[in-house]
Amino acid sequence: MLMLGIDTSCDDTSCAVVEDGQKILSNVVSSQTDLHSKYGGVVPEIASRRHVEIIVPVTEEALLQAGVTLSDIDGVSVTHGPGLIGALLVGTSFAKSLAYGLGVPLIPVHHLAGHIYANFLGKDVPKFPVLNLVVSGGHSELILMKSHGHFRIVCQTLDDAAGEVFDKVAREMGLPFPGGPYLDELAEFGDPGSIFFPLPKIEGFEYAYSFSGIKTRAILEFQAKGESEEFKADLAASFRKAVVDQLLHPVKEVIDKTEAKSFAISGGVAANMLLRREAEALCKELGVPLYVPPPELCTDNGAMIAAAGFFKYQCVGRDMNEWLYLSPSAGLELESWGDGYS
Amino acid sequence: MVEKLANRILAVETSTDFLGVSIVDAGGVRFEITTSQPRIHSALLLPLCVYALEMVDVELNDIDCFAVSTGPGSFTGLRIGCAAVQGLALARNKPVVKVPTFEVYLRQCRGYDNLAVVQGRAKGQTVCAFYRRALLPYQNGEGFWNEYGFEQVVTIGPRSYEEFCQDLMKSAKERIWVTGDAAYEFAEFASTCLPCEVRLVDEYLLLPRPGIVGLIGRQMFAHGQAVHPSLVVPEYYRKSYAEVIFSQRQDEGEMP
């Protein structure tokens, strides 16, 4: 089954062709970073304008690189949330019409499910149950999957997402946009033990993340004594360690409790060097394999949406008439697919 | 001679809260449907297209060209219309005509003289223009909407109500007619500050009719003005708020 995957949830316009949810034939991502960098963050209206300009060329490029034509496509998957509503509207409107015009099913995909399925592209895929850590500019969640399409959120952030605080602290420190990767690089030169960041103590939840407090602390530290390059590197290293420590803090306990057979990290922050190193060490200690997608599949892309769409289509089947009335949702909740889990 | 246009057009109108779809062919407007429920364009647009095709009993493949109203209007609405038409046209390998929304107003309001079109209102700005019945009809030239006998006096652009009224002050000596999705609000404002009579056009013509989009589309297609779906993008006439603020700050020297 040849699946077209479309994602316009934030500032990247992407379209991919994936065969049987596994083999990437093409994965085209048109980044808008240059359009947003002078504003220090993604401007929704500018992102939406760019999506509607570029979505057809990106789709045509994906087909060309895959060496297929539209008539070969068996289904269209599209992100219908969560994300920037104006941006999502472009992708879903286009995908719905395209699927209807081609006479193929449209499979709406939750963006988080997309990130998770980045780890299922390829031959070596995680064994169930798999514990997923999805970390990006918009998400920080631990999601347990017993089988395809069976999602249980174990831990999520009460305030900011991990990627968001990396970007915001980096912006405050004057690093280029998007700041996360630059902060990661700078942190390699600093002493992670130089500035103490407490682990937030959160009551009323079994597991939960909170990043806004340490973000504020990092910004205040920088404003107080941030001039020297050395201090900046130390601050970056200490702050990065605080975020990564918190992200991985519940993982051991959850894996022990749930007897998860694999641990998978996805989302833009999965490219963070310290997170990878620490996760590798932890998985070695626990004796479970770690899965992290290659960098191009960590950030938003169409291939992961096509992969998730393929598996969702297998779970939910052919009765999908409602999609004609599909409308995206900025705050979409992650729900499991159908009843028939494989 | 009456020009016979035999092509079949599926037209989409999403520039305002008023969502509409029409099918136009040699027999004129064969089907037209509209709904004025705001904020559900993305859910209803495609079902309405499917319904229109069913009602006229034609296949999607029998559509020769798609027409879409490209603005000015609601940014999000315009993008929904454009993206939907891009998908249909790309899937069926058919071209698209981009119909300027103000041309739709001019065609449907051709019976009026002194027409003010006021579309959209956000951050204190509306996109507006003023047209006068042309004294020299059917003369080709820039700024003339000769087809409908209008001469453009105030060009299409973003303005506050105050600014637009100042522009109108110079040229509107007699009664002016107002149309567009901000017509009610603007007419109320203008009647307090313009010396002439300010009236709304017929209520039926206050929002762009999808049938008119189709009729203009059919004509544009016959005149070779159809384009590839990749070129179908809205005409906003207003910058995004972030861009406006950014350039203001730059002017004030607050930013590099």
Protein described:
- The complex is a heterodimer of chains A (342) and B (256).
- Chain A is built from twelve helices and ten strands.
- With 342 residues, chain A is an alpha/beta fold.
- Chain B is of the alpha/beta class and 256 residues long.
- Chain B folds into two domains: 9-101 and 208-239, ATPase, nucleotide binding domain (Nucleotidyltransferase, domain 5), CATH 3.30.420.40; 110-200, ATPase, nucleotide binding domain (Nucleotidyltransferase, domain 5), CATH 3.30.420.40.
- Chain B contains seven helices and eleven strands.
- Chain B has a six-stranded mixed β-sheet with strand order 8-9-7-6-10-11, sandwiched between helices.
- The N and C termini of chain B lie far apart (61 Å).
- The interface between A and B is large, with 36 and 37 residues.
Summarize the structure.
Chain A has 342 residues and is of the alpha/beta class. Chain A has helices at residues 33-36, 44-66, 85-102, 111-117, 162-172, 179-187, 212-225, 229-248, 251-258, 273-286, 295-298, 302-316; strands at 2-7, 12-19, 23-31, 75-81, 106-110, 130-135, 140-145, 151-156, 262-266, 290-291.
**Whole-number tally of structural domains of chain A:** 2
Low-confidence stretches of chain A: none
Sheet with most strands: strand arrangement of chain B: 8-9-7-6-10-11
Name the largest protein-protein interface in this structure.
A-B, 36 and 37 residues
How would you write the strand order of the largest sheet of chain A? Answer: 3-2-1-4-5
Within CATH, the superfamily of the largest domain in chain B carries the name ATPase, nucleotide binding domain
As a whole number of angstroms, the C-alpha radius of gyration of chain B is 19 Å
Radius of gyration of chain A: 20 Å
State the helicity of chain B in percent bands: 25-40%
- Which CATH architecture of the largest domain in chain B? 2-Layer Sandwich
Give the overall silhouette of chain B.
globular
**Overall CATH class of the largest domain in chain A:** Alpha Beta
Average pLDDT value of chain B?
A: 90
Helicity level of chain A: 40-55%
CATH topology of the largest domain in chain A: Nucleotidyltransferase, domain 5
The secondary structure category of chain B is alpha/beta
**The CATH C-level class name of the largest domain in chain B:** Alpha Beta
In round numbers, the mean pLDDT of chain A is 94
Largest sheet composition of chain B: 6 strands, mixed
The residue ranges of chain B in which pLDDT falls below 50 over 5 or more consecutive positions are 141-145
